[in-house]
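Continuing from the previous page...

OK, I double-checked the sequence for Carbohydrate ABC transporter membrane protein 1, CUT1 family against my notes and this is the correct one:
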Amino acid sequence: MSSTDSVPGGRRPARPPRRLTRNMTAKVASIPMVLTALVIFVGCTVWSIVYSFTKTRSIPKLEFVGFDQYERLWSTNRWLVSIENLAIYGLCSMVFSLVIGFVLAALLDQKIRFENTFRTILLYPFALSFIVTGLVWQWILNPNFGIQKVVQDLGFENFAFNPLSNADTVIYGVLIAGLWQGTGLIMVLMLAGLRGIDGEVWKASRVDGIPAWKTYIFIVIPMMKPVFITTLVIIASGIIKVYDLVVAQTSGGPGIASEVPAKYVYDFMFGRRNLGQALAGSTMMLVTVLIVLIPWAYLEFGSKKRG
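Thanks. Re-ran it with the corrected sequence; updated structure tokens here:
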């Protein structure tokens, strides 16, 4: 019996479309986006890295000076202060954002009354721009009419809370404003992860008499590993590029006490007209981003491939 006889009507079965021509319309439609990504993002990134090794100031010119810009960068006290501030702000922001966001999400996950109202109130600061947040908290932390003034008027005349005027504590004042704005988003992400946990887990833990806190630590949190990884990447990306919050709240002061890398790059690029130094700083920021993204990509996609 021939192969055509085994098919009704004597026709051969249709061949599956080739992989190259499959979804051709979608592939053609994505060409502008791919070209934009290659030219704007990849092209500009390569351009920035190349010119960071040149003696470029106001006008780009290919006069290579090796690692001179990077040596100058890491010997500048202002850059070292900005890196120290970024480390303090980043570490504290990651820890407190995750802890506060998870605790708030766990409380809202108890099906409390007016949950939607509380969730909206807690998420509202994230809808504001960092400029607005910085200006608001500049007023709140002002000793003449902010928290310090209010507490002193209540009778505590020796109370002092003025972090933005002290070089040793100014970065923590910036941190307070950043946590106020960003914790709501972390709470929503954590709440979505908690709502994805099967209810049978909680029933089984109650039957076994396991305390709620142990259930969260040893069962729920490990099950939410993808949510935590994604949240950490979002927090880290916001930390590395923090700029407008610092500018609005302290302008980098007092002195250079609240300087951050993004502000350093902006000031050298547009203020001091030193493009080579600014590009060296931006390249170091790019390296920091890659340090964050590469482990995330390995954990996100490598585990799926192994699975």
